[in-house]
């Protein structure tokens, strides 16, 4: 029960950091390019692990989906200080995706509504005991 409460608080803090990081505005020029329906967007991205913890699994799903699907980590594990490219091999052309990572104990952290049409790199960190993510 104590672990579940800690995990809940941990996830709320992680989500809060994600929301605050995503509060940057977009310019009108960014919105005008979305009118071109022929534009093809890539959902591929690089994940950088600067957490101090080895990542054992990475899952993504379109925002709003109930299931995570399979582990998409392209290496056996992702040690801290390492990065790996995540390439989508899917016909799903969703713009917003959720991300979940797991460590060796199965502890997970989630980030929601990541715009993979504009994000090409996700750097994961733990700052002051809280998981954070920065997006490029």
Notes on the structure:
The protein is α+β, with helices and mostly antiparallel strands. The protein has helices spanning 2-21, 28-32, and strands at residues 45-50, 57-62, 82-86, 96-102, 108-115, 121-127, 130-135. The chain has two helices and seven strands; from the N terminus they run ααβββββββ. The strands form two sheets. A four-stranded mixed beta sheet has the order 3-1-6-7. The chain has a three-stranded antiparallel beta sheet with strand order 2-4-5. Strand 6 and strand 7 (130-135) form a beta hairpin. The radius of gyration is 15 Å and the shape is globular. Residues 1-29 have low confidence and may be disordered.
Topology:
Blueprint: H1 2-21, H2 28-32, E1 45-50, E2 57-62, E3 82-86, E4 96-102, E5 108-115, E6 121-127, E7 130-135
Parallel strand pairs: 1-6
Antiparallel strand pairs: 1-3, 2-4, 4-5, 6-7
Quick structural summary:
The protein is of the alpha+beta class. It is built from 2 helices and 7 strands, in the order ααβββββββ.
Residue fraction in strands: 25-35%
Number of domains: 1
Give the rounded overall mean pLDDT: 80
Low-confidence stretches: 1-29
Q: Give the spatial strand order of the biggest sheet.
A: 3-1-6-7
Beginning-to-end CA distance, first to last residue: 37 Å
Question: What are its keywords?
Answer:
136 residues; 4-stranded mixed beta sheet; 3-stranded antiparallel beta sheet; 2 helices
């Amino acid at each position: 029960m104590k672990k579940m409460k800690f995990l809940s608080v941990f996830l709320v803090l992680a989500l809060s950091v994600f929301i605050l990081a995503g509060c940057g505005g977009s310019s009108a020029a960014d919105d005008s390019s979305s009118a071109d329906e022929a534009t093809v967007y890539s959902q591929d991205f690089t994940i950088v692990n600067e957490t101090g913890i080895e990542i054992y699994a990475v899952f993504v799903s379109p925002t709003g989906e109930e299931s995570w699907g399979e582990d998409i980590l392209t290496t056996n594990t992702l040690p801290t200080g390492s990065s790996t490219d995540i390439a989508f091999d899917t016909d799903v052309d969703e713009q917003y995706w959720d991300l979940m990572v797991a460590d060796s104990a199965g502890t997970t952290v989630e980030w929601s509504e990541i715009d993979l049409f504009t994000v090409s790199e996700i750097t994961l960190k733990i700052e002051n005991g809280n998981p954070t993510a920065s997006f490029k």
